[in-house]
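Blackboard transcription, Thursday session:
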Amino acid sequence: MRWPGSGLRVTEGTAAALFFGALALLPLALSFNPYYLSILVAALVLGSVAVSWNVLAGLCGQVSFGHAGFFGLGAYASAILAMRAGWSPWLAMAGAGVAGVAVSLLIGLPSFKLRGPYFALAILGFAEVLKLLALNLDSLTGGSQGIFGVPPPTALRLGGLTADFEASRTANYYLAGLLLLLVWGAAVLLRRSRAGVAMATVHADEEAAAGIGVPVLRTKATALAVSAFFTALLGAFYAHYVHYLDPDSAFDGAWSIMPIVAALFGGMSTLVGPAVGALVITGLDEFLFKRLFESGHQLFFGLLLAAVIVWAPSGLLGGRVRRPTT
Amino acid sequence: MISGSSIVQSLLSGLLEGGNYALYSLGLAFVFGILRIINLAHGEVVVLGGYVAYWTLVRYGVGPVLSMPLAAAAGGALGWLTYRLFLRRVREAPELNTLILTFGVGIFLTNLFLQLWTGDLRSIEVDWLQRPLTLGPIRASVGELAAFGFSVAAVLGLQAFLHRTRAGKAIRVTAIDRDSAALAGIDVERVDRGAFAIGGLLAGIAGPVLGILANVSPGVGGPLTVKAFILTVLAGVGSISGLIAAGMILGVGEALTVTFFSSSYRELFGFTLFLGILLARPSGLFGRRI
Amino acid sequence: MIARKTWRLVLAAGLAAAWTQAGAAPAIKLGAHAPETGSLAKHGQEQVKGIRVAAEEFSKRTGIAVDLKVYDDESQPQKAVAAVEKLAGIEKVAGIVGGYGSNLVGPASEAAERYDTPYMTTGAVDTKLSARHFKNFFRLNYMPGYAAAQANTIRELFQAKKVAILFNSQSATTEIAEAVKGQLAAGGVQVPVFEKFEKGTTNYKPLLLKARDAGCEVLLVEGYFPDYVGTIKDAKILALPVKAYVGAWGIGTPEFIRELGPMSEFVYGTSIWEMGTAPKAARAEEARFVEAYRARFKEDPSYIAMLGYLSAEYMLDAIAKGGGAAARTRDLLRAMDAVTPIGRVAFDEKGDPRHFTAVLFQTRAGKQVVVYPRDRAGGEAKYPAVPWSTR
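(Written on the board underneath:)
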């Protein structure tokens, strides 16, 4: 798809630099309006999960329908580590990422022999099982009563500046932005690494990859582990941001489907595309459709999705941004 | 503790529920098997069929048996329209695109229902369908038995259509080898459109049954789609008749899990069965090519 | 010179007059957030309808304009936080009403506390919400009021020996199921069947059969509307031999009676309010609301709409009387003590309703007959109820 006036083509690096630059300056332009920032925090969380999901799908060609499982797992793991084991929320968030890796390997190893939608559905099945465990392991998770009062990340002091994550939307915005930068940076490094090349080979043709000696299983496991690590990390951030967890909201199916929507919307062929997609869809829904139609705004959202898939099938950035040749 | 008659009654309720599961899944299984399109708006089309039957009953006093063709037509028309407007333009794109496309259509429909008819729950109440029938201590309603019979008839009817009619054969040939079908003079574009419309029609006829045995409201479409998915994989993609058996295995398993253990494990049973079959036998219980 | 001075004086007087006129009736900014879309859309939309009626009635009654800001939180916790950021942070509303479900009200009320904006909810009954001791948090209903009405009726009125409790796995229904079980056990009533089921269950027969085999006289379903529809339809098919069917909330609503028809007869339910259950002293107010609601929306109000209406009315009254400062609004709400369509309303230090008891009613000929508490009762309970086959 060539956009009107799309003679302009940029490299992915330029697009990412522009994007993150804009993110850094956005709060200034919005004069630190906490409402806009709280919407943007939601968009950044979604964007980071979408980039993580795309590490598995875009780099390695393995589509998952069950990232809500890793998201909810991370949220619960971090809340439990912080509240039961008394870890600092920062450490607990890292611990949640590790838990995500461990569970992703347990789930992934039996599932990797499945192809296409079957693999995707297997992850969905495991995500549902994780949700049911959160609901039924009352003594650990509080069951359906959920967990109240998940502590915010401890405040950081840098010189005279204090980042208070309990009250300040600005602090949370920049933390979410940094997490997105971290996820994106890790994905870029991964793509350049040996493992990344192996992933591209598996993506292109699994049989051929095995034929030339690429360790297919290990490559897929690496992609899933990285993807699950960051998805769980973002789930942990979410828990410390809303301070409240229950199985329905932490394992909400939206955490599986919305990252896919964002990734397709922004373009799966680039690493920054899914994040752009997340910001655009959240922004349009909140700031445009909701103004037009208070309780029916999602009608527009549904149509918009269909329209973009039909008329810009490779996403917003798909036709415009060149991938560097590796 | 648990009486013998309760075990039999529980078993029967599972079998009957399994028939419903099959009916709710038929449209999705058919479209997935033939077109390889994962239709995430499937559940919403079922709900539309339910609303059609509900409103014809409430506004015009026409019972669900008579409004069934109308529900089917609404589902079929919606399927046709979805294909005509959107899907035909992304036929060549990766599977994920059709997935998100139909997801968007599903969101649109859910919110359209919400705007048109509020979030109120609707239940189709017809006296003769609620009448209980008894066999010794075992009981079932006329509606339940009729729904089961209807489900089996729908599956057999679809099978007969695919194997006995020219159109059905064209659909099967196209599903197996698109290029050869085109070479043989089949208009594959038309076949696709027709097949998607039939998928909508099959979803539409399930709506009145949903309204009679359970209830219809804007939000129930999503869970229906997930259930249909699970059943499609359990049966094996492409196995239409396997849906009934897979539905019954799921329904009976769930019912007996509640009877012998606890209802806390009912969902866990379903997903464990699903994962077990998927990992051990990805082609499903009855999987074979159409 | 003099002329000019006079002119200035006239101008100043005119300005002052305009100023005091504006000062006499400044519009009150009231914020409301509710899940108008997403999984809780049904409840959120009814709540907002009730709040709109309250704003309109308030303006008519007092002549003070109400600038109502409604925000759809989409049934998502993150959007519930954004709702308060927008209403309290940007719109600077004088108070916030609405909110449904603990996972939305939890984060939203926390943000309201941060903004020091009074927050009154009607859709979250979890006891942990008020345990946080927020000074801006108020609610009209909470869980113990429902549990006590059910347990007391079963013990005192029905004098049942064995009760089956089936409950939806969601937060509020799990909590009430456990509370009722505890209160029944303390009163020597056995609960041989205590089963949790998932949202979206369609086959309830295996659960009901357990209640039958255990010989339970009362079936208590702590759930939501779809659960009542499913269990009642299945109980009728099985001709379940229980003497009473009792539901937690959302039962006996106009929608329930419309959809289930004769099957809704003789079913018991607890509620904070259904049409016709107001105490005598508040019958007139109840009638006024029902009339205004019908005129506006061409349908009968549910208890959720009534709660939305009342919460907005109390908040608006407190704001108007106190001038809008958060501390004054809070104090006035804390000092309030009135008999209203939902009974006597007064708040304790945590913001919980001091006197809240749910009423337990039985549906008879499409109307709610209150049978408990006795002082609000409108008739005797039909117990045991007639068999399912004759409904």
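Lecturer's comment: Residues 152 and 184 of chain C are 8 Å apart (CA to CA).
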